Amino acid sequence: MRLIALVGVSVSLLLSEPPPTRAQAGSLDVERFRKLRQKLYDRDSEIRWGAAKAFTELGSEIHLTVNSLRARVATDVDPMLAKSAIPELIAALKDESVLVRRRAADTLGVFGPEARTAVPALIEVLKDPDPGTKQESSVSEIATASLGQIGPDAKVAASAMMGILNTKDSSLRTDALVTLAKIVPKDKKLVPLFVQILKDKDQQGLRYAAAMALGYLGRDAREAVPDLIEALKAVDIKDLKRRSLIFGGVLWALEQVGPDAKAAVPAIRALANDPDEHVRAASRQALKKLDPVP
Question: Most exposed of 73, 85, 244, 282 (fewest Cβ within 10 Å)?
Answer without folding.
Answer: 73
